[in-house]
Amino acid sequence: MALDQPRKFKYVGTRPARPDGIDKVTGRAQYGNDITAPGMLWAKVLRSPHAHARILSIDTSAAEALPGVRAIVTGADFPPIEGDAGMRDVQLNCMATTHVWYEGHAVAAVAATSQAIANKAARLIKVEYEILPHVTDVDAAMAPGAPVVREGQTMENVPAGMSANVTYHSEFGHGDLAAGFARADKIIERNFRTAATHQGYIEPQACLASMTADGRGELWTCTQGHFYFRTACAAILGIEASALRVTASEIGGGFGGKTQVWAEPVALALSKKAGKPVKLTMTRDEVFRGTGPTVTTSITCKIGMTKDGRITAGEATLRYSGGAFHTGTCDMGAMAAFASYDLDAVRTYGWNVLTNRPKEISYRAPGAPQAIYAVESTIDELCQLLNLDPLDVRIKNAAKAGTKSSYGVVFEEMGLLAALKAAKAHPHWNSPVPEGASRGVACGFWFNFGGNTCVSLNIGTDGTVAVSEGNPDIGGSRASISLMAAEELGVPYEKVRTVIADTGTLGYNDNTDGSRVTFAVGLATIRAAQEAKKDMMRRAAAIWGIDAEAVEWVDGAAVPAGPNAGKFPPMTLAEIAAQSFQTGGPIAGHCDFQADGAGVSFGVHIADVAVDQETGKTKVLRYTVFQDAGKAVHPDYVEGQMQGGAVQGIGMALNEEYIYSDKGVILNPGFLDYRIPVASDMPMIETVILEIPNPGHPYGVRGVGETPIVPPLATLTNAISRGIGKRLYELPMSPPRVLKAIKGH
Amino acid sequence: MTGTLVTSKVNGDEVQFIADPGETLLDVLRYKLNLMGAKEGCGTGDCGACTVTLNGRIVCSCLVLGVEAEGATIGTIEGMADGNRLHPLQQAFIDHAALQCGICTPGILVAAQKLLERNPDPTEEEIRYWLAGNLCRCTGYDKIVRAVQAAAAQMRA
């Protein structure tokens, strides 16, 4: 599906109002916590105060005796999942059984007639713990003799003799490293560390669960994937998927953090036991303690470069911990680390390590920001050592179509070089660095994803179009899907209404993740529209009494294809729809498939920063994001992804971190002490959208959501390091850490 | 637990409710008055998602007790539009794509409305500092600031 000529679009690429806009500016939109049910109970989860302990006993008698308490569940209420270790881990993360593996791990839950009673009852549950040794630092957890988080989790590919906390190893790359390093004029090897950070969505997890005596259930929840939530909840409760219908509420942010269940199986179990609907809403404290942050990492990166800036070899070891559970995120980091470069010799090694921390869950390009931070920082340091322009070096080494990537695939058309050249030509790069400031640049990458997708498109008899899709709209996707349906059918955007169907009314859709929705759901919508068009052309042909092949679709209407087909005026979608009951019944299109060809995504960021020499505080003065969107379907929301992702990355770079006590207790589980960027911290975020069409999509669309969080970590590291004249190797670059670097102690 | 009968004015209408001693104004608005527009993002006054006006001042309604609303005048996002006519700020937020998930939007709009009442022509810096107590995790604030500027310009015209 390569595009020889840039396609002309009528609706795609415009900036209409989003369909859910009015609901969201008037307070009408219903999020996870915004609905109630008659007779509803309120729930509260009791969580472990210890980082690692054996549960000796749980005494719920005092809580049960409290008036208003209707149900209490513990791990014993969930039938252990057999034969699916991954789902068993999800179950154990929702509710501990014999052990707690992190502070905040759920151990019991109560449903009562008010939130106040539920809270009080939770405090009356007596849990007897035997405290066990814990470890929260990734390097400490890898060391011989470290406290063992969980026995028996090590996979076969981990060499013997390592700490039992090392569960998984992977390796990617190609070429002769030794020969590559031998060709280098300069080789440096550096160690980096990054802290765990949280997605920080403003809406805490919240759901309303209702199980009835016949074993059927309804679940309303804020989720990035209600179909997966149905799968997980059914497995954890031991019921059939069809017994549960999940409806996705409006979602108050997710960024990957709402791709996993925590509250939902617990609320369903409470509802089943109590025979009443149960509302379970997490507090912000619980969100920080109990839901997934990112990995915490320790990375070693070694790169060789010639004196004219050619990278001859790159090698990185990535030690990732996603808490007390196995995660494959180190693979993502190991695959992404060097993806921006066309290298003859490259090797990356991923290690997954268990620590007594909450289970990691995806956060925008999971694993990539940390790995690419290490690579982009090392390259920048080499540029300084060899006195080379950091943008020229990246242009010289950039991967392009035909490059065999560091993780094996051969790239198709992609926009890294276009973004780098746009950066080099941009006024930001060409303006003098302001007095007292410094400038940094870095690249970023994300794979992007397609996946399981199912869309139905129905043509109304009045000529309007209803699209049913199955991916929660987390940042304007209904507008983008409607635009693509409008484009394909040739009807105005206002005639299309896109809704998010529940799990009972549409086939399976993968989570809203992997930057997949505009690409995959858009592609499915286009195919469904094509099917509906084919049907409408067939009906027009029947009305005209000509062959269906002699009809084509032009600008929202069936028309005879060429002079030999006969002379008939165009028959519009609305005209065909109005006659549908006379021509064979309702008109619809459908597409269910696994979307392939998502198209890789690259970005380049430039930052100007000023560091306060007395406090170590960094102020971002100017920030510009360049990214290839393939085709920006709704440019406002593409820019929004670029701006929002960049600011999240700036937060990772400058402030955000989980801070632990020596007892393994999180010390900053709130927005006061875990400080995400606020309006006064940020400048305007300039955006430059490049459009290098993705060959895997008829409009050239590629996902844009995740890549923007990747470059800021190194962009700011490079800017600050150049500014203070000292390299920084650890994130976040909080004021105390920067001050220490400035003062040298 | 003995409740207290509270009478106040919400979005111009007199309302009465029984407030439990520990119940926040936010919970009263949401669960007793069924005004779900104000959101609880943190419950500790750090995120601003529950912002409402109380006797003309913006407050985090999660930090105000329901009983404190006795005799008070309260404004929430539900009272911002005039029927079907959106406030210029609401329209500007749609026009400038100043929301992605929208969970912070009600609080930001209520806070921004108060800013423009006090200062019809705020600078970018004044907007950013005024809204520094309203967290948004989606947008990076750029389009929010631009939307407030656009609404301010329109309201001055």
Describe this structure in words.
The complex is a heterodimer of chains A (745) and B (157). Chain A is α+β, with helices and mostly antiparallel strands and 745 residues long. Among the domains of chain A are: 21-28 and 450-595, Aldehyde Oxidoreductase, domain 4; 137-411, 2-Layer Sandwich (Aldehyde Oxidoreductase, domain 4), CATH 3.30.365.10. In chain A, helix 15 runs parallel beside helix 16 (517-544). Chain A is globular, with a radius of gyration of 27 Å. Chain B is α+β, with helices and mostly antiparallel strands. Chain B has two domains: 4-79, Ubiquitin-like (UB roll) (Roll); 88-156, [2Fe-2S]-binding domain (DNA polymerase, domain 1), CATH 1.10.150.120. Chain B is built from five helices and five strands, in the order ββαβββαααα. Chain B has helices spanning 25-32, 88-95, 105-118, 124-130, 142-156, and strands at 4-10, 13-19, 51-54, 57-60, 73-75. In chain B, helix 2 (88-95) crosses helix 5. The termini of chain B are far apart.
